[in-house]
């Protein structure tokens, strides 16, 4: 099992990071909370979870061990796969997710792409007890997101691609970004603002 990788960010294409570790490039899918902290050329440590299937092996990476723990906890919920778990952590911060579960906020969960009412109800039931032991650590974890510098694409294109990677339809992503693009010039700011508008 690959527990973490330490290397240099070689390329960024939301939500995938290409991490150069001693000359070997690892493709790692990340939640936007992690992706938005990364810059090309930056040396980082990503806490990883490896999913092995018959047709593929996929690495998922996180900026801290707490987020990785929450990701693994989400995977234990019936009907929640890696893509949905990544979407949940991209849409809600760890603190907000814990708060949502603790306060039975079903309306917030169903706004996450791919999460219907039945799945949201399962998340509520199955995570409530599991989060009791994780809540204190999650609440104290940091979610500050420094500015990101995207190299290849325009901020608008990156923001739209990031939203689509979460499961939003292209038209939904374009509409959300268009609604806030006049106020922000950085991709990370656009992504956060668009997500916030879509969760209202």
TrEMBL record:
Subcellular location: Cytoplasm
Primary localization class, coarse: cytoplasm
Gene name of this polypeptide: ruvA
Organism: Acinetobacter radioresistens
Native organism taxonomy: Bacteria, Pseudomonadati, Pseudomonadota, Gammaproteobacteria, Moraxellales
GO BP, sorted A to Z: DNA recombination; DNA repair
Record carries keyword DNA repair: yes
Gene Ontology MF terms in the entry: ATP binding; four-way junction DNA binding; four-way junction helicase activity
Entry annotated with the keyword Nucleus: no
Protein name: Holliday junction branch migration complex subunit RuvA
InterPro entries with a match to the protein in the record: DNA_helicase_Holl-junc_RuvA_I (IPR013849), Hlx-hairpin-Hlx_DNA-bd_motif (IPR003583), NA-bd_OB-fold (IPR012340), RuvA (IPR000085), RuvA_2-like (IPR010994), RuvA_C (IPR011114), RuvA_C_sf (IPR036267)
Entry GO terms, CC: cytoplasm; Holliday junction helicase complex; Holliday junction resolvase complex
Region named Domain III: 151-200
Functional summary from the UniProt entry: The RuvA-RuvB-RuvC complex processes Holliday junction (HJ) DNA during genetic recombination and DNA repair, while the RuvA-RuvB complex plays an important role in the rescue of blocked DNA replication forks via replication fork reversal (RFR). RuvA specifically binds to HJ cruciform DNA, conferring on it an open structure. The RuvB hexamer acts as an ATP-dependent pump, pulling dsDNA into and through the RuvAB complex. HJ branch migration allows RuvC to scan DNA until it finds its consensus sequence, where it cleaves and resolves the cruciform DNA.
Family (UniProt): Belongs to the RuvA family.
SUPFAM superfamilies linked to this entry: DNA helicase RuvA subunit, C-terminal domain, Nucleic acid-binding proteins, RuvA domain 2-like
Domain writeup: Has three domains with a flexible linker between the domains II and III and assumes an 'L' shape. Domain III is highly mobile and contacts RuvB.
Assembly behavior: Homotetramer. Forms an RuvA(8)-RuvB(12)-Holliday junction (HJ) complex. HJ DNA is sandwiched between 2 RuvA tetramers; dsDNA enters through RuvA and exits via RuvB. An RuvB hexamer assembles on each DNA strand where it exits the tetramer. Each RuvB hexamer is contacted by two RuvA subunits (via domain III) on 2 adjacent RuvB subunits; this complex drives branch migration. In the full resolvosome a probable DNA-RuvA(4)-RuvB(12)-RuvC(2) complex forms which resolves the HJ.
Chain positions covered by the region annotation Domain II: 64-141
Record keywords, A-Z: Cytoplasm, DNA damage, DNA recombination, DNA repair, DNA-binding
Stretches assigned to the Helix-hairpin-helix DNA-binding motif class domain: 72-91, 107-126
